[in-house]
Amino acid sequence: MSPVDLIVRSARLRWRGDWVEAGLAVERGRIVRIAKDAHLPSADRTIDAHGLLLLPGAVDTHTHFTYGRPDRTDIGTGSRLCASGGVTTFVEQAASTPQHCPPTLTLSSLEAKTALGRANALVDFGVHGGGCAANLAEIPKLVRAGVAGVKVYMGWNPVGQYTACDDATLLAVAERLAGSGAPLEVHAENPSIVAEATRRLKEAGRTTPDVYTDSRPTLAEDDAVAHVARIGREVGSAVHIVHLSSGFTLPTVRAARAAGADLSVETCPHYLFFDTSAYRERGPYAKVNPPLRSRAEVEAMWAGVRDGTVDFLASDHAAPSSEKAPGAEDIFAIPPGFPGSETMYPVMLREAFAGRLDWDRLLYLLAEGPARRFGYYPRKGVLLPGSDADFVLVDPKATTTIRNEGLHHHSEFTMFEGWSLTGVPVRTVSRGVTVAEGTFPGSVPDLAGRGEFVRARAA
Ligand SMILES: [Zn+2]
After folding, report:
1. Rounded distance from Cα 63 to ligand 1 centre (Å)
2. Could you tell me if residue 343 is left (phi over 0), alpha (psi between -120 and 50 degrees) or otherwise beta?
3. Which of 3, 86, 178, 373 is deepest in the core (most CB within 10 A)?
4. Is residue 197 domain-shared with residue 209, that is, in the same domain?
5. How confident is the model at residue 72, as a pLDDT?
């Protein structure tokens, strides 16, 4: 038998709920065998992973690499920071600023975005479609072309033609997705509740960062989740709630599922690691939509992450369109959003190493869960024979301190500044090719343009 392209040997990997010492063999970018060292074939290249954990690469289904200032974000930079952080597949959101490409509302705009990715991305990527009044006829075509899902906004117009949906439009988008397997994806905040809460605060002259959570109450999220879940259930469309912020919304999620809704939810690391105290500590930098929540809501979210109510994690990586301006007093004038794709895997590993999160649950949250929901499984999100050889080697003893200047983004800040971690990625491999090497944040080779567009539900 001729040698395979690559073997990784002597690693520790998860097998049926336990750690085993084993390795894997890679041929033409795919895993062809997972076995004890003695049963691995000969190979052209060998990685000795003694003492390292071999884990699936993360699938980050919520990135905004084409939305924001081009000097701060683009799909090439985004894919590099993914590689550094152990994200081997990212799924780019529909909204885009025109300097990058048009928002993904039509087949031609999908082609423009995938062309941008093919030319610049280091790791593989998927794309989300967008839904609004202007593109209803395009939605079935986008789904057939392999978008992950179709994202709608209830109260905010992200860009140009990509406008917010009223209820009639929401229903019309859901009808076009019914039975397709592609979820209706919703930024779930009832816009009139947010508008009224904001108006009252401004009227009272309360515009400092610490009031921001009050401007977007949990009620707005809870109400929106119940509303869209009901629409999806009525017409037979899967519904996915992006960046759920409050653990107090989880009973509504469970009730909607019990009533028959095909409802999934993602949350983001920032809703697990930061609470409203961040507005006092970080001022305008802590602004994100939906906002950070109370400590009790954060604890409730952790419970949902552990017990499976929360389906998976995503970063909602954004490079805000202007400076956060330290010391700025009017929180309503500050752009929202955090960078986060690069730090997601490392900060979640901390929880698993500390024994606060089960290892298999961690890997489901970061890899298998998102891959399953959006139709990339089993090509992505799992280490199995036949899957793409997308994996991360983690050194349980390697230590790092997160510093913004060390990360591969061009953003002005990270919420995880100064975090010291023990047990971080030391290598990321995408389809058998090393795309980051060295203790996190590792060095990233210049291999722009090797990333492939991955169609959702391709099989
Ligand atoms: Zn987002």
Report:
1. 7
2. alpha
3. 86
4. yes
5. 87
